[in-house]
Amino acid sequence: MKKKILLGLLAILVVIQFIKPERNLGEIEGPNHIKNVINYPEDVAEIMTRACFDCHSNKTNYPWYANVQPVAWFLDSHVREGKEHLNFSEFKTYPGKKQAHKLEEVVESMKEGWMPLDSYIWIHKEADLTDAERIKIADWAQQSMTAIVQ
Questions:
Q1: At what angle do helices 131-147 and 96-112 cross, to 10 degrees?
Q2: The whole model's pTM is what?
């Protein structure tokens, strides 16, 4: 009986490998990118590229394990949710008040330290921001809020 259950589970595991979510492989810096709305310094861009854009842009750099189910579904869910909350690649499409609010959330997330997610940092050590990097992003976002026409 145990053998049948294990074989059934193995068969399910094999079958689900063929059910893959659509990948997030668009352009990061298209016409609606945040750099086309507000000042976007190179040092801020570098930090955000390694710590934010995999989940908050139109392009994700997928690790090898993103090809294994059900891990790919888990990653897809995180990327979709991240883009729903804030998509830097589509920032220009947000109305002015929403842009300012999104930047306010960036400031809050940096000051309170809840972004990037711990589950992301465990695998992507380069995304573990220093206090100085958090301050740099928070200061940039705070200053950028005042530059947005509401």
A1: 160
A2: 0.87
